[in-house]
Prior knowledge:
17 strands, alpha+beta, Uridine Diphospho-n-acetylenolpyruvylglucosamine Reductase, domain 2
Amino acid sequence: MAERRRKFWGWGYEDERLGDDEERRVLEGWADRLGVDAEAFERLPVPDAGDIELGAPRIDPPSRVAGICSTDTYDRLLHTYGQSIPDLARAFMKDFANAPDYVAHAKTEEDVTAVLDWATGAGVAVIPFGGGSSATGGVEPAVGGGFNGAISLDLGGLDKVLEIDRTSRAARIQAGIFGPALEAALKPEGLTLRHFPQSFSHSTLGGWIATRAGGHFATLYTHVDDFVESLRTVTPAGVMESRRLPGSGAGPSPDRLMMGSEGALGVITEAWMRLQDRPTHRAAASVYFADIYDGAEAIRAVGQAGLYPSNLRLLDPMEARITDAGDGTRALAVLAFESADHPVDAWMGRALEIVADHGGEFDPEEVANPDAHISGSAGAWRAAFIRMPYYREFLTANAVINDTFETAITWDRFRAFHDDVKAAAEAAMEEATGKSGVITCRFTHVYPDGPAPYFTYHCLSRHGALLEHWRYIKERASDAVIAGGGTITHHHAVGRDHMPWYERQRPSLFGEAVAAAKAKLDPAGILNPGVIVPAPGR
Amino acid sequence: MAERRRKFWGWGYEDERLGDDEERRVLEGWADRLGVDAEAFERLPVPDAGDIELGAPRIDPPSRVAGICSTDTYDRLLHTYGQSIPDLARAFMKDFANAPDYVAHAKTEEDVTAVLDWATGAGVAVIPFGGGSSATGGVEPAVGGGFNGAISLDLGGLDKVLEIDRTSRAARIQAGIFGPALEAALKPEGLTLRHFPQSFSHSTLGGWIATRAGGHFATLYTHVDDFVESLRTVTPAGVMESRRLPGSGAGPSPDRLMMGSEGALGVITEAWMRLQDRPTHRAAASVYFADIYDGAEAIRAVGQAGLYPSNLRLLDPMEARITDAGDGTRALAVLAFESADHPVDAWMGRALEIVADHGGEFDPEEVANPDAHISGSAGAWRAAFIRMPYYREFLTANAVINDTFETAITWDRFRAFHDDVKAAAEAAMEEATGKSGVITCRFTHVYPDGPAPYFTYHCLSRHGALLEHWRYIKERASDAVIAGGGTITHHHAVGRDHMPWYERQRPSLFGEAVAAAKAKLDPAGILNPGVIVPAPGR
């Protein structure tokens, strides 16, 4: 049986596509919401690898490296892009100008070392590649002219759970393992990492850590960061491994430097991860509010109460409607608790008191339903959440830009920030495409001091102009996020797409400090050039 | 009225001493436990500043800096040492060889900049000084011969809460503020930082952040780290300020590099701190176990249950006895919950079920007492905890070494680690002093993947040999901590005392990366030389 292959042009496997009914429903829905005729959509066909001509590799690795390298066209295409809108758009346009010269498939840490050693001497850029789900240009070998070539270093062969410490609830895991395989390996022990980003099925542990991915929990353990007990990283200067420690106060945290380094400081090969028992107690509720502002006040109160719900997501009315979780007249909060240890009634009871005090409405019968987290509004939202990446690919092929950006802001600034960012994106969509678009907002994560608003926008572009339109909107929206005091990314990473705003956001001296650290760890500057640390001479 | 002055030789204010009864009780207790005659104690008198000759300052700052500098003997003595055993011992021996040439009293950020600018050009070491409570040699101007002088930079003049954001529950606070003043300024708003290290009354916000101090909460918010929303830091290369963000995934965290930098990368001048509402609901219980191992199993189960008690401290039988919290036959766990939002009965109820399942015994009547957290065993422990620094000074004057060291270890290794470290310290006490000492253990903080064991040891030394004895014991105990896989410090910081073990613990490449960052932020290497980053040419 042939191995199931992932799409080089979009989300999921090659054999996966939306059904005819689903396609029609999505297009009709967007025709309606964007006020355009369904005939307006012009669909590009799925690209055929056979139609795409890649240049011959510019470099010639020695046998130790060549032995793990592939020059197969499909492989090079698959490793050219992540899942950002410009990535999808260019894939459908069959533009693979930045394809890597080779794809190195590391099966061992020695393979990683061999690639870095050679590349350092040969002036070849190396792009660490996990699942390739970057939505911000993090894996594209767009490294400029300063290198003799570029290699995509696929870590997918480092896919084992090596050791489980049931007592401490931790496991030593190789970085290239994908989400489903990771959970499958932990399940027999009754353990789980409980890190479920939207990309779960097509992203890896190392990718999550390198990009500070956001996961399952809406509060407390929002990023994968806190689940990291220790890290092992291969750099061009050698191996760096931190101790397994439940906590420490010995100097700045070594792991916190590597988290968020996005492949620019080293290649994470292993991690000891903190795990949890599989939850057995659950409670969920859908709570309705007049609008996102009322909802936000309630969510703030729950978020500041020390209850730590696993889910505390708030959808504005239109976001609820688009995901079939609401009818568009009210904002919806999805509230859930889970535990492997105890019934969560007291927790949910208090949370419902708080939201009721803030005008939230809910159906007590739904709350009493033990399957509430997978039925009703919460269930509809969950189903839509899993389908979104497929819609994203399909809509791009139809010249609908449907992108998202996420940020975080303190509560005192939330309302003005939300309104300003939304207005900037709305104006940009209109200016770019000549037609109004739709922008919606939800909270993906909630902190005691502020929410993480996640914006989704849709507008009708046209093939040929889509990249330019997207860039215009991206720039205006990002400018507004930075001007309003937000972060350019809460959990989608910096990549290449966010670098200009990242450089405005992070303290410039910190940028210099990280660049100095990179010069020590990666003296030739071959690791993911242009990401996190600006490429020299730019 | 004259300002109340802090002791330059020990803990607290000059007018504070133990009462005669308390002194007698402490000495008789230790004579008994150490198996020596109470006559064996030889007490050094409190040093008199008038007896101590300091050399004239070796340097001559320009008027901008001189205007905020003091050469007062008391001031220079106060800024020579922290509160480590060798600090106390040398103070009682009137050895102040490393006194700073000047003490600069910064009242503004411009003062800090002026000192750093001048010192960078003049080759003068600058030791940032908050409350001077370092227990690991973090503030002593022991900078070696590579500098033209040394200045202690006292931040105590930066002592204001500048701004309170009640909505987000955060405040912008100057780094030099002491614990009590900080809490007093927040109280009218009903807010609290709830960071209460043992040093609370004589330590500062900036010191807590720079050393990753451990605070009030035994679980979840164990270090001050998680309360930091953003930081403002002055470095010789300029000012570094991070954005106020509830959460972010934009590259490695700038704040996490400064946390734990212990004054070696910059001088923290301000922070936005995450606050909490003042708790109104409380529950506490004292739970008894046969020994620390049985107790540890129960504590592990509670720590892995997702209940997040504010207190989850475990004392071994002898530690409980010494602090009057137990009779020495059983281990004692102090368990507490607190909330500003809701009664904590369900939380405490479940925690008590868990400890009972693990053989823990408790008095249901005590649990029902709303003042349980300040009465009974918990209250006795709390009272002793606050007196400990005074005993430490008093015992040092009596040639009893009474030091502590704290670490963290995963649960799977705890028992062997505990036994090995304890045995190493016991052997070292015997070898150094010729007499057996007493070592006890408690857990100060508990993580799902392991505890933070805190060891306290006492042995009778003699004046003249105390420093040498202490060093011998410190080295053996630290070797055992590192060999067993622990951290050289969980929340007491690295300072100068822990550098050799810190260098064995942290990945060496990470050390090089931090040194490279320091070279960028502090090009002349004047900031707290020898701490975190080894002094050049050492």
